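Box 3.1 A note on notation
Throughout this textbook, protein chains are presented in two layers. The first layer is the amino acid sequence; the second is a token string describing backbone geometry. Keep the layers aligned when reading.
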Amino acid sequence: SEKRWVSSYYLREVWRAVVSDEDPKGLSVRTGPGRSFRKVTALLKDTPVTVYEKHENGWCRVDFLDKWVSGKFLEFV
């Protein structure tokens, strides 16, 4: 097999998680890291997500675009 290399400058750590929120309406997904941001959708319990950024207030970005959820309702795997 052939080895390939890439500069770490272009890499970013990501985390895998699963939604643990029991609310039947789902976990709110917002346009920014906080409840004051507009809700755009919701994720149901056990939905797998990739976390691309963790904000200092505990909110997590779960999309390349601005889609954020509260980290207290995620179970990191």
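Strands lie at 15-19, 27-30, 39-43, 48-51, 53-54, 59-61, 68-70, 74-76. The chain has a mean pLDDT of 96.
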